[in-house]
Design brief:
By secondary structure, this protein is of the alpha/beta class. Helices cover 26% and strands 23% of the residues. Helix 2 packs across helix 4.
């Protein structure tokens, strides 16, 4: 029997640089968050959900939403809520503002899931920046580690992962683009 994988799209954040809720910004006629969710769901066998505050918009009404006791406490808190309650073997995370990361990119991200604790999308060009919110996590190997780091006061994902076996999956910078302004969505 194969491993089960669930997907989660982060919908939090204030969109202050964007000027409006970027989750709902239309790309090819669809809200950006739905575009990301569709790319992710095209790659995994499990359920896809959104993580973050409630979204009062028709396109999101029927989509499962995950929240937990750490809601509103940043991305690491949201990750810990997901890991703490995950019933799948692996979880894949994606921020709602990465619409250029396609299903085939998620396939590549997931391909090395059994070789390490975390697979993280990384820029192929130096300085090889890691994009922690585009990542695949082995639930059993990371759950207690990440929750312990959070509980001890850590809030930065790049420091919380210290001690975990991380694999850098390299991608072209353009697919890793975070849409922070309306011009970035062009």
């Amino acid at each position: 029997m194969g491993s089960s994988i669930s997907g989660f799209v982060f919908t939090g954040g204030q969109s202050t640089r964007f000027g409006s809720n970027k989750l709902l910004h239309l790309i090819d006629g669809k809200p950006m968050g739905i575009v990301v969710l569709n790319h992710l769901s095209g790659s995994i066998d499990g359920e896809c959900s959104v993580v973050g505050p409630p979204v009062d918009h028709a396109d999101f009404v029927s989509i499962a939403r995950v929240s937990g006791r750490r809601e509103g406490h940043g991305p690491l808190g949201a990750m810990c809520d997901v890991l703490e309650n995950a019933s799948s073997d692996f979880v894949v995370f994606a921020p709602c503002d990465t619409p250029f990361f396609m299903a085939s990119d998620f396939d590549r991200l997931i391909a090395n899931q059994g070789e390490c604790d975390v697979v993280v999308a990384t820029d192929e060009q130096p300085p090889h920046l890691r994009h922690w919110l585009l990542s695949c996590w082995n639930v059993q190997a990371t759950r207690s580690h990440m929750i312990e780091a959070y509980s001890s006061g850590e809030r930065a994902i790049h420091r919380a992962i210290t001690g975990l076996n991380v694999y850098d999956q390299h991608f072209a910078s353009h697919v890793l683009t975070n849409v922070n302004t309306p011009q970035d969505a062009q």
